[in-house]
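user: Here is a favour to ask of a fellow structure person. I have my own habits and do not want them to colour yours. Could you put it straight underneath, so I can go through it closely?

assistant:
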Amino acid sequence: MLSFEPKKSSHIKLVEYEPDHKLLHVTFSTTGRRYTYRNVPQSAYTNFSRYRSPGQFLHQVIVKNYPLQEV
């Protein structure tokens, strides 16, 4: 599993990615909730980890393009 802790986000605590299953897990620091996005390609995870604003990338790319399941 790949993971990173966004340094520039006050809301996102942890992002984890399971490349074999194309699952992206996002844990929020504000609520402690963990959400799983399905069918996410590794390139999206890589771009997410490098983007200047993790929250903006989450809403503009991940939320709009990949199915969500709250865990």
User: Anything to note?
Assistant: The chain has one domain: 2-70. Helices lie at 42-50, 54-65. Residues 2-70 form one domain.
